[in-house]
Amino acid sequence: MFPVTRDPARVRRVSRALFYTPPGTGSHPHGAIDEWDGRRSAATVLRRGSGHLGWSIPQLGSHRLRRTGTIEATGSLATGWASADSASTGLALTGERTVPGIASENYWFRRHQAAYHYLLAEVGGPRLLEVGAGEGYGASLLAERAPGVLGVLALDYDGSAVSHLARRYPALAAVRANLAALPVAAGAFDTVVSLQVIEHVWDHPQFLAECARVLRPGGLLALSTPNRLTFSPGSCGADRPVNPFHSHEFTAAELCRLVAGAGFAVQAVRGLFAGPRLVELDRRHGGLVAAQLATPPADWPVELAADVAAVGWRDFEVGADRQHDLGGLDASLDLILLARRP
Fold first, then answer.
1. Which of 130, 281, 303, 335 is the most exposed place for a label (fewest CB within 10 A)?
2. What is the Cα–Cα distance from 228 to 311, expressed in whole angstroms?
3. CB 148: neighbour CB atoms within 10 A?
């Protein structure tokens, strides 16, 4: 059994047992490891310290483990970010990554935060992997409040985000990794969470195959992504998204077909919608998102700036097609999909 603990040092030790380097080499099959420990076998590391750490690592065998370091890799995501430093977080704003504590970013932060709060009642099992953790606020929320989650590993391709995450959320294990080749053992996790990521990935089947590989049988996959029908109205699946950070945007039907085609059993698709207060703000500003995008934040009217800064995660609602009166999933802002590995 996995030991019940919230001790940051133990969580990091447990999570680090997932990274391995084949004997006789200095490189990870999915990337390069800066530093690795060639003196201890996997079995030794799993026994030392607190003893029965409880992770199941079926393909680790006697492969050696790294003690510290970052996993480097070539990019598999659609990139091209323009940076601007954020004084409040110390993490650069990219124009796409959402961070807390910035008034002009608050609408997008709360929109993404609402999806994590929804998942608190859905995820389970002691071992959780977030793929594309970004700033880390979501992984931290799941680590602290999701029932039964005892250890969280947060992966991201951006080294600055990983460094920031490790400093700000010390209870998490933070590793830089190529999301197209996850540097963890097969079947090592009970839950894989990847929110607002799949629209950035070039090779969707490969990405989903990696998610399936690292999940135990019966493990849960949780994805979210913008709904193309509302995020890029008028576009079709063959169009290159207007958002330069996206490789492809999905409808609910397309996302279900993709995930089912990767061998998962789709359990539910939910829509994230604007709640009543946001509907009123949309009316007041002629579209809250459009108003934010029309001019730089420094030029926003005082009323718009105040309304954006006051948005909370509870201003968004999550519901299924038959449970919502706003036109079903096709009218949702974002899609949230839950699926199981057979």
1. 303
2. 23
3. 14
What CA–CA distance (Å, rounded) separates 211 from 274? 30
End-to-end, the C-alpha distance of the chain in Å comes to: 22
Q: Where are the alpha helices (DSSP H) in 22-158?
A: 42-47, 106-119, 137-145
Centre a 10 Å sphere on the Cβ of residue 208 and count the other Cβ atoms it contains.
23
pTM of the model: 0.75
Tokens of 101: 């504590």
Q: What is the pLDDT of residues 197-231, one digit of tens each?
A: 998 888 999 999 999 999 999 999 999 999 988 87
**pLDDT of 153-211, one tens digit each?**
999 999 999 999 999 999 999 999 988 889 999 999 999 999 999 988 889 999 999 99
Q: pLDDT digits over 279-335, tens only?
A: 999 999 999 999 999 999 999 999 999 999 999 999 999 986 544 444 588 999 999
175: how many CB neighbours lie within 10 A of its CB?
Answer: 26
Q: Encoding tokens for residue 58?
A: 């079926």
pLDDT per residue as tens digits for the range 103-118:
999 999 999 999 999 9
φ/ψ of residue 210, rounded to 5 = -65, -40
Q: How far apart are CA 20 and CA 59, in angstroms?
A: 10
Length of the chain equals 342
Cα–Cα distance, 98 to 197 (Å, whole number): 12
**DSSP-derived secondary structure for 203-242:** -HHHHHHHHHHHEEEEEEEEEEEEBHHHHSTT--TTSPPS
Contacts of 313 (CB under 8 A, 6+ apart): 110, 111, 113, 114, 117
Q: Are 201 and 247 in contact (CB under 8 A)?
A: yes
Contacts of residue 111, Cβ cutoff 8 Å, sequence gap at least 6 = 272, 313, 316, 333, 334
